Prior knowledge:
With 256 residues, the protein is α/β, with parallel strands linked by helices.
Amino acid sequence: MKNLYDCHVHLNLPQFSLQRDLLLEECGKLLDFCINVGFDEKSSEESLSLAYGYPFIKAAVGIHPTYASSSTPRLLERISAMLLEEETVALGEIGLDYYWMKDPPEVQKAVFEEQMEIAAKQKKPVLIHDREAHDDTLAVLKIFKGRVRGVLHSFSGDETMAKKAADLGYYLSISGPVTYTNKKNALFRSLVSSLPPEWLLIETDSPYLAPVPFRGKTNSPLYVAYVAREIASLKQMEPEEFLRISRRSAKDIFEI
Ligand SMILES: [Zn+2]
């Protein structure tokens, strides 16, 4: 398959430490580009060193909502500086997580908004993590309407949310769960089948969220074709045609 890319991976994690060099070599052959995403200071630094080490890897740097309480003015300055680096294409992942709820919504929102402000100043796109916090996430994106664009990573919202997000200038990134054919997921799959292909990006979120037939195992960017094929089949499109459109959207938002 041509035009394959993966807009959300965490290849810096220890799950990959035994075979990282080999995996990266394989990924470089298969993928056009791949965005390694930070979630705290250390992982953001690691994203950058991967991006400087491998031409097909780009970096995203940011503080994930689960690490909201680690945020300090010094760390925000550090994120700001890393965002200026040549190999950094986005600020993220940032957002709200009411599933794990490690910090109260007010703390999460404050750190989210501070980082949105940094993205607005530097005119960089954002990668949004939203888990069970759809309304509050949209409310923050709305505050920055016209100043910040980006991607809703591993999108899990409904039709109303998809339309509102697209209207605010956001792409929807689809991950492994689109391949899960259980009853609970039928509505989501039917939503994906109805959305314009121009709105949809693809990702693995490796090492998490492995697509069928690898569900439950360590995910890898090498499996991103399973996500692409599933979306194309739901939309009754040729995979190559879907990928051509999707890759163009990805290159547009990340200016790759
Ligand atoms: Zn992630």
